[in-house]
Design goal:
Oligomer: single chain
Number of strands: 30
CATH class of the largest domain: Mainly Beta
Helix content: 10-25%
Number of domains: 5
InterPro entries: Hint_dom_sf
Shape: elongated
Length: about 725
């Protein structure tokens, strides 16, 4: 890949005005950037333009980081394919991070955050772009897979409408002017269920549905109070309310408006719904005007069903699960609540069972802190962001179709989980997490990407066999880059980090800053550092078990003389029996030892005419002797190269991965999986001093790169 092609690719794919770092005028009267650009790193959003990293930064550092390797090659540090990772082409641009001295742009490094800026006022940690240097194909672009089917009903149908002009209900025939609803299989996050009347009637409505009270005023359904408020039936008689509940509903919702003109009067807009008088959609839409006119209770002054204020104000009511209010007895002291419709579920009633071994975004103590301290939306408000949450889940499902994403809105614990059940992968977002104020698409995307990362089970492994917590944060960046392509990633990154900080982690107490249920016990700060390192295509922070730059070192070497065995000479002319006989004769004549070590006195001229005495054909015998001589000449010695850590066999399996000086042919390479040793068979000779060097491709089992200053070692047999 020519660097100019990478520059062209970045400008074609991301920003036509992208500039290389050394082409930017950073200071002086003609400066092309502002202090705000530098302080906020607006380059992450290509403002005022995208930055192209120094080519050496990309080629010497970025491309070798485990993050870039995973992104570009779609393989984790173990060489395992990353599920649904999109193969990248050779010029696929990815964001990295560079610490730049704007007074001298040739002075740059990979330091991040304060480690960068504390070097001086002219140092800034900035986002720049590199290109993948491996060959791959294609990019997946998310296409949402559809919305809930909307059924439209015919207008013009006749409907009964009520008038209060005479002080009592008078019913007339009206026309339906507007009717719209969701499909029958829809999921409604927050609906109100009512049980009322002496005949135990039931109705399920939206929280803003208006009902006519016995006082003559309208009132929202989510402000109704059992045993206090009374509905009105078709004859104008009071109807007692026995229960008000809030929950989720599986089914369609419809809005209807009559053809009557609205001029501030509710006449012609009152309907009869399940035996009680309710307002049409026109009245809902004009509730503010109705309050000003005195025709409707001011809901802003009334607590919502399910809120703490509601519970305190109406302490005579009992509650069930979350946000459920019903009176336990009426005047006769015998009435009990009835069975609710099967498609209506109280909040907390339909929570999914999460296995104890599931990976969790927060540990139990941290989740408890957030639950107790963080501001959150009420259950009635849970529907406000349900469309966003469903969109985010659909978005991620498009990129990771093998994972079942589940929104457990009834679970009040602010957390997210990942687990495998019956060979199916699951990621669960709880309502306790999504109801946190300030937690938006970007923050939730970070959480989802983290849970996907845990399912990958990349080293180092944490509790219950999942990717360890901080390393899951680190690798989550690659999954986010799959979902948010190019500039979209830069646009969402900082808001997402801010949401995690100010809406979630901020509310974890000082004593619970450490994620205790993880072998590396990362702190909140460490987790943010891991995210930052992943974005910068840097190596993970120390102490979380991940790969480190130059973390793999050659520490020792042992070399053994050339060896042969009883069957080393088997070929198309020499069978196993003949090979074994030849070996014994070589031992008898002290050409090799009993253990097979080739004698140091053996040379190309050593007499081997004692071999194959039973072969009568002299030409055949001579050829067989020379074949044995060749095997002895090219017999390989064993080199045991010791490292400070286990070596990934996938990175050390070929003669291409090691070199000998002076040159000697390498036959086989085997990385041991139980000890930090690589065994190399090579044509090494006695009395020759060799230098063995490991290539930069060699990695530790956890992905650490080879130390460039400690990858060579000398030896002599």
């Amino acid at each position: 890949m020519a660097w100019e092609e990478c520059v062209t690719s970045i400008r074609a794919n991301l920003d036509p005005n992208a500039k290389e770092v050394n082409q930017v005028i950073w200071t002086g009267p003609k400066a092309q950037v502002t202090e705000d650009n530098l302080e906020t790193d607006s380059f992450s959003a290509s403002k005022p333009f995208a930055l192209i990293c120094p080519d050496r930064h990309c080629q010497d550092y970025g491309d070798f980081s485990p993050q870039a390797h995973a992104l570009c090659n779609c393989k984790d540090v173990n060489g395992n394919p990353i599920p649904d990772c999109v193969p990248k082409n050779v010029l696929y641009p990815y964001p990295s991070g560079v610490c730049l001295n704007i007074d001298n742009p040739s002075d740059y490094s990979t330091k991040r955050g304060r480690a960068c800026t504390k070097q001086g006022d002219s140092y800034y940690a900035l986002t720049c772009f590199c290109c993948c240097s491996c060959y791959a194909n294609g990019t997946k672009i998310a296409v949402p897979t559809g919305f809930k089917t909307i059924e439209y009903f015919q207008t013009g149908d006749e409907v009964l409408t009520a008038s209060l002009a005479t002080g009592s209900l008078k019913w007339n025939t009206g026309k339906v002017a507007y009717s719209m609803g969701t499909g029958p299989d829809g999921h409604q996050s927050a609906m109100v269920y009512m049980h009322y009347g002496d005949d135990d009637r039931q109705i399920i409505v939206t929280p803003d549905q208006l009902f006519l009270m016995s006082t003559g005023k309208l009132k929202r359904s989510d402000r109704l109070v059992p045993g206090v408020d009374e509905l009105v039936n078709e004859w104008g008689e009071a109807v007692p309310i026995h229960e008000i509940s809030i929950g989720e509903y599986i089914g369609g919702v419809h809005h209807i408006s009559t053809a009557a003109a609205f001029d501030g009067v509710i006449d012609g807009h009152l309907l009869l719904s399940e035996g009680v008088v309710s307002g049409d959609f026109t009245l809902q839409a004009n509730s503010g005007q109705l309050i000003d006119m005195g025709a409707m209770e001011d809901h802003k002054e009334l607590p919502k069903i399910g809120s703490e204020e509601y519970e305190k104000k109406y302490s005579q009511l009992s509650k069930e699960y979350y946000g459920v209010m019903h009176i336990t007895a009426l005047s006769d002291g015998k009435r009990e609540k009835v069975q609710r419709p099967q498609k209506f579920y109280l909040h907390g009633e339909r929570s999914i069972t999460v296995p104890n071994t599931a990976a969790a975004y927060l540990d139990d103590a941290q989740a408890a802190d957030v639950y107790n301290n963080a501001p959150r939306w009420s259950f009635e408000d849970i529907g406000m962001n349900s469309s966003l949450i469903k969109y985010v889940l659909r978005l991620f499902k498009g990129f990771f179709p093998e994972i079942n994403f589940y929104y457990d809105q009834s679970n009040v614990t602010p957390n997210a989980y990942a687990f495998v059940l019956m060979d199916m992968q699951y990621v669960v977002l709880t309502g306790g997490l999504t109801r946190l104020k300030g937690m938006d698409q970007e923050g939730l995307s970070f959480v989802l990407a983290h849970m996907i990362s845990t399912l990958q089970k990349s080293n180092p492994i944490g509790a219950n066999g999942w990717t360890s917590v901080a390393m899951a944060d680190y690798y989550s960046i690659g999954f986010l880059m799959d979902v948010y392509f190019g500039k979209n990633f830069g646009t969402m990154y900082n808001p997402g980090i801010k949401q995690l900080d100010t809406s979630l982690f901020k509310y974890i107490s000082p004593e619970n800053q450490t994620y205790t249920n993880d072998p590396y016990q990362p702190t909140v700060d460490t987790r943010f550092d891991a995210l930052d390192a992943g974005k910068a295509m840097d190596f993970p922070p120390d102490g979380i078990g991940g790969p480190t730059a130059g973390g793999l070192k050659v520490v020792d070497v042992k070399a053994f003389p050339p060896m042969v065995g009883a069957f080393s000479f088997v070929n198309q002319d020499i069978d196993e029996a003949a090979s074994e006989d030849a070996f014994h004769l070589l031992v008898e004549n002290k050409v090799v030892t009993v253990d097979g070590e080739v004698s140091p006195d053996f040379t190309v001229n050593t007499d081997l005419n004692f071999l194959f005495p039973d072969v009568s054909d002299e030409n055949q015998r001579s050829m067989m002797i020379e074949q044995v001589r060749s095997s002895l000449i090219h017999a390989m010695g064993l080199i045991q190269l010791e490292f400070n850590d286990l070596v990934n066999p996938a990175s050390a399996s070929s003669y291409h991965d090691f070199t000998l000086d002076p040159d000697a042919r390498i036959g086989s390479v085997v990385a041991k999986t139980n000890i930090p040793v690589v065994e190399i068979a090579a044509e090494i000779k006695r009395g020759v001093k060799y230098t063995l060097t490991a290539s930069t491709n060699v990695r530790s089992f956890n992905g650490s790169t080879i130390d460039l200053q400690q990858r060579s070692i000398s030896f002599e047999i």
